[in-house]
Amino acid sequence: MPHLAALATLVASLAVIGPLPARAGDTWSTPFPGVRLLVRSTNAPNKIRAVEVSLCHVGIKVRATRPSERGQTVGAFAQAVGAQLAINGDLFSTGFIPSGMAVGRGQWWGDPDNSWEGYVAFGADQVDLAPVRPSLDAPLPWMTDLVSGRPQLLGDGQRVEIPAGVQAFCGSRAPRSAVGFSRDGSKLYLAVVDRMPRDTGTTSRGMTCTEMADLMKGLGAWEAMNLDGGGSTQLWVRGKGYVNDPSGNNH
Q1: Cα distance between residue 47 and residue 102, in whole Å
Q2: φ, ψ for residue 79 (rounded to 5)?
Q3: Which tens digit of pLDDT belongs to each residue from 197-212?
């Protein structure tokens, strides 16, 4: 299944990144040049992990799964391609067929299960987030890496109305993953929230899509989209492993 991975080469300088609004329980760190990691605990309660990636920083690249790389866990994929961090991508069906369009390193996975999922696409000096797949029979030539998801959470900095077909899916609190861009497209935001009913020393109830939209907006996202959640909610960081607590057994 497709995963997003941000890769960075070792450079001597650090990006100058303006501080985001701090909240009680927030801990920010800079594990790699151009990458900031947020560890947040709230009174909801919720356990949140998020990443802000400066796409303009020297050496930053974004990588999605090739068709031949399907079926790997997030951590295994990240380590195989030398990524510094990785997040789960689209929903998938039997045979690890993604629900929406997918492209990895310029290789298109072929016709998806449906035409109503949105996507995030990356190419040379270009990014795009579409709420639903437009009238594309195939990815555009510039789209070298693309991952799909549903539904769109933010558009033009505001919550997007949840489509009727996914309101039940979105209305319950669950482990969730999301991706977003800043208004100028220079920053990539990745976020996960856990749901942990078992005794792990902490608790987290998960979020609805509306709550996830508010989280992404608070991080600085102008456009945002929900990714595959549930047991697939995973955020892996080199040197730390999984920084969230995946509820499934596929990690």
Answers
A1: 29
A2: -70, -35
A3: 654 556 889 999 999 9
Q: State how far the alpha carbon of 93 is from the alpha carbons of 96, 108, 227, in Å.
A: 6, 17, 14
Tokens of residue 10, six digits: 């070792």
**Residue 57, token pair as written in the block:** 């920083």
SS (H, E, C) 123-160: ECCEEEEECCCCCCCCCCCCCCEEEEECCEEEECCEEC
Whole-number Å distance between alpha carbons of 87 and 237 = 9
86 forms beta bridges with 5, 236
Q: What is the pLDDT of residues 103-144, one digit of tens each?
A: 999 999 987 777 778 999 999 989 999 988 776 778 999 999
Give CA–CA dist 50/125, Å, rounded: 23
Residue 251 token pair:
């990690």
Contact 81, 63 (CB under 8 A): yes
Alpha-carbon distance of 228 to 250, in angstroms, equals 13
Instruction: Give the pLDDT score at 117.
Output: 86
| Interatomic CA distance for residues 89 and 166, integer angstroms | 18
The dihedral region occupied by 230, where left means phi > 0, alpha psi between -120 and 50, and beta the remainder, is: left
The β-bridge partners of 42 are 46
Dmax over CA atoms of the chain, in Å, equals 49
pTM score:
0.87
Q: Residue 131 contacts by C-beta under 8 Å, 6 or more apart in sequence?
A: 118, 151, 152, 155, 160, 225
